[in-house]
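Before relying on records like the one below, remember that each one covers exactly one chain. Contacts with other chains, cofactors or solvent are not represented anywhere in the record.
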Amino acid sequence: MLTGFSEILSQRLKMLLFIQNRKHFLFSIAVVFLLVITATAQDSLNVSLINTLYGGIDGSINDLVIDENLAFFTSSKKELVILDISTPETPEFLGRIQLPENVQDIAVTGDYLYASLGEAGLSLVDISNPAAPRLIDTWEDWHSNTLLIENQELYIAYNENLTILDISDADDPGHVGSYIHDHRIRDIAISGDYLFLAARIDGFQVIDISDPSSPNQVQSVDERIARVERIVVDGQYAYTIGSLMEGGSFRIYDINNPADPEFSGQAFIIAAYDEDLDLNSLAISGNHAFIPFTSNYPFEPIAYGVFIIDISDHADPEYVTAYDLDNECVEIVILDRLAYLANDNTFHVINLNNPVSPRESGFFPEMQTGRITGIELSFHYAFISSRNGLSIVNVNNPAETEFINHVELIYCTDITINGNIAYLSTARPVPADEEVFFYATDIENPDSIYIHSVPGNNCYSNGISSDSQYIYIIGYHESNGLFIFDNSNLIGSIELAGDLNTVTVLNGFAFITGNEGLSIVNVEDPENPVETASLNEFQSPRGVIVNSNYAYLADGENGMFVINISNPSDPEITAHYESTGNFTSIYTWFDNAVLADSTGGIRILNVEYPSEPYETGYYLHEGLETTELRVHFPYVFTGAGSNCYIFDISEALNVENEENVILPDNSVISSVYPNPFNSFFQVNAVIVSPQPIQITIHNILGQQISSLHNGVLNPGSCKFVFDGTGFSSGVYFVKASVPGKIDQMHKVMLLR
């Protein structure tokens, strides 16, 4: 049972009112949440974004700046992200903002950040409140690649042009001076009245900026063979990195007289690396230089790391070692014996107390997921499968989550939970005898989770479902189809056409989507599964969820289909909900369907009357390419890229479509007492005419946990007792169903 969610609801949900003449039950919910993601453009209706579980930066990091206790970085998805690094071991997300274009460089001064947008211009962001950065202006005429701030002046390099702006009035910069070089400017650094300009094949130049209105070149240091890409000034020395035909070059210059630099020493980084070696960035700390690199040789695939150079003797710098990384580092900043690395889509903190033997001290984000492929929730934990494995997060309070554990696994494609076991399908690069799925036991203790593996049968598995006895895998390779396992033993299979996407199993039938449509397979005899029906009236069927007599299918850009499966051998399309989005996944909670929209967000539909679904809420944002989701009322957990977003959808469940109201001719449940209850409660019913009635108990997920009655009742009063012994504290629902009439729903609270 999800005790955490129930406790939250007991605190935050007001009385659930049953309206006698309608099936719709209205929630009056007083919730005040602090939005974790702010200042981003979105369109929403009755849905609030309350939290983001980061598994990776949205896109790869382009640039990184450290300013006191804050880290600022930009991503390839046009975003600026701000972290609190006051505790470097546990960087915490503060805020983010969407910018007009991809950012190539950033510079910070006081409460302002300038972002270079290339040909799109220069943007100014107010960062006085890091949790809510605000875009002030974008100047399209000031094209920019590289930025540097010095003495209230902003130096902008764009291709061959250097522009100097007066930013004493941050939001009204004024042009001061300009300089045009013969080649594209790669990097700039300043020491006193001199600017050092790296220009790759043209080496680097020294520009006199004592009069910013009239910059003047005073020296050119020809480094054509070294192709200077970066230049850093530290004290009386300038350090450069560049590429050579036979490797990388690191050079040191004495700039005691900045107008006449003197070559001091160099280190050729050849070793086991060839001409494919790229030096990406440069940082100096004490007696060492740190140079992130990328190399194609002799490693396959590409190797990444940080070269460490001993510069205690500037005349003879010496290569020490390389610190291995798992991906490309494009920027490194060193402050207080800590190195901050922009490592693809991860922010790393490296401890340099022993510079020749660095050790990882912290990183963001904690989850370390790749592209999220599945989400399940149980025991107040979120279990998130991704291409990097399994991440577990405590979501007892969805607005303030806690990362618990990450287990590295290769290319997990889906996840399902049954009781105390989580099952994960996997698609190995070479299937052969590798795992077809993993399973994790004892998941109520996720900090010490243990993973078991099940060998495959020459099959990539890309979807998984389970019931009380069996595990159902959809896969492809030597054959396409459904594979049924009893624990770790393959006991049955059936070949199916097309590329299969998702599988869900209910009441002895498996519902499988693929590019050929929807297949319904009878699995009551798991050793001999039989396809009983198929529908191919869809364009790109993806997710499918089955609820009672209906299946709800997400059909990409073609919207959602409602399918009557009361007779699984003869399914009939009941309704088609068209949408401008791209539906990839679907989940239902009682009379509501929540759809993942890969064009950016989620949509909520009311499906009380399956033939007439209507929209009651949505949250749309171009950065949320949502593909996976799960519902734990009133929250929706979604996977978009490598991040998990949490929404509150309670308001969307209050919306009624007046045109669809049908009034029942009588009620069944008159009261539920006591409420709240400790162990037992009594359901009092009044029957007007003889009729078949089913009274069931459901948990907060809408799952049936008990049946109090299922059969004909005669007119009069009757009572039913529910024994809650063994169930966890929280919210439960009593449901009364009469054929041909609207169901009734009563909320009850179990308190211990």
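Helices lie at 3-12.
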